[in-house]
Amino acid sequence: MNLSGKQTGHCQKTIRTILFLLIFIMLFSGCSKSQKNLGTAQKVETLSALPIMPTWASDNYMAPEWLLWPKADYSLPQNFYPWCGTVSHHQLTDKLIDTWFSEIKERRDVENFFIICPSHFGLSCYDYSVAEVQWDCTNGKYVQSNLEITGEIKNALDVQADNQMFTVEHGASTLMPYIKKYFPEAKVVVVAVVTEAPMNVPYAQKLAEVIEPYFNSKEKRQKDFLLISTDFSHHGTPEVTEVRDSHSMIFLQRPALENYVAASCDNRVGMYALAYIRKDSTPAQILFHTNSWLLSGMDEDDVTSYFFTLME
After folding, report:
1. Which residues on adjacent β-strands are paired with residue 53?
2. How far lies 260's CA from each of 135, 253, 271, in Å?
3. Which residues, at least 6 apart from 256, have a Cβ–Cβ distance to it below 8 Å?
4. Counting Cβ atoms within 10 Å, is residue 95 exposed (0-12), middle (13-18) or buried (19+)?
5. What's the angle, vertex CA 172, arms to CA 57 and CA 269, rounded to 5?
6. pLDDT tens, position by position, for the chain (312 residues)?
7. Are 230 and 239 in contact (CB under 8 A)?
8. Do 110 and 186 contact (CB within 8 A), yes or no?
9. Around 136, how many Cα atoms within 13 Å sit in the side-chain half-sphere?
10. pTM, whole model, 2 decimals?
11. Is the bond leading into 82 cis (omega within 30 degrees of zero)?
12. By the 8 A CB rule, do 181 and 126 touch?
């Protein structure tokens, strides 16, 4: 079939238009894909550049097998949905920490653990030590800080990241292998606080007010978990420890702001924040109450006690 010059020109123009559109689509999609890949690469590079902190797992330290573990005689309520609680940071309590995390896992998933722990050893450079790190849980497994939320917390508290102090801070590092075991995709927001007596109430209030917006609705409490890393009575005999623990029970049976001072522990700032954020004085569910002497039979004159609790 013979085509006129006018028809031939029209066809050529149509073909050129189609080719132009195809080239444009290919370039645009390639550019978008490159930008997406670049964003992903930058995110991976940022995470991989985080300082690596050791844990007992990476140090290949395990609690002794001969420890005397208490019987699990607690019974949690039906449909219990915990979103906050207290847990020890002494690796001596290994199996009890493991059980505590497993009870959470049986009832829910967690995207982010907000961890308030004591700042031990006087290494903090700021009023609040905020972590932007990753913890080595061995075999190429890491628990990483949630950089977005951590950045918000830093700005609200008016501090910089204080990563150096977390190289030896067991208030956080002890817990990371258990988080990785039961919540492998979870990230953490860690704030270490100064807890020497007498407690600075405005200091605790500021932290509580900064963290409270992340837990001020049912939806948020179903997503994240407020973890208070704390051990209770320190450096006492069994008799002294028993008296101090009876005081701590006053708070745990009614975890309200007016009772936080009764908690004989190394993290009263955390207890204050817990009471402020929870706004519910119903009793804590106590999974275990024990102490280092009952577990090990050692150091009767230097006892540390432990309460493992979960709350709604």
Report:
1. 135
2. 31, 11, 6
3. 275, 281
4. middle
5. 160
6. 444 444 444 444 444 544 444 443 343 344 344 344 434 434 444 556 899 999 999 999 999 989 999 988 899 999 999 999 999 999 999 999 999 999 999 999 999 999 999 999 889 999 999 999 999 999 999 999 999 999 999 999 999 999 999 999 999 999 999 999 999 999 999 999 998 778 899 999 999 999 999 999 999 999 999 999 999 999 999 999 999 999 999 999 999 999 999 999 999 999 999 999 999 989 999 999 999 999 999 999 999 999 999 999
7. no
8. yes
9. 16
10. 0.85
11. no
12. no
The angle, 0 to 180 degrees and rounded to 10, between the axes of the packed helices 201-211 and 268-278 is: 50
SS3 assignment, position 270? helix
Q: Which amino acid is at 217?
A: S
Amino acid (1-letter code) at residue 231: D
Reading the block at residue 290, the tokens are: 């024990």
275, amino acid identity: A
Instruction: Using the structure block, give the residue that is written with the tokens 């080595």.
Output: 136
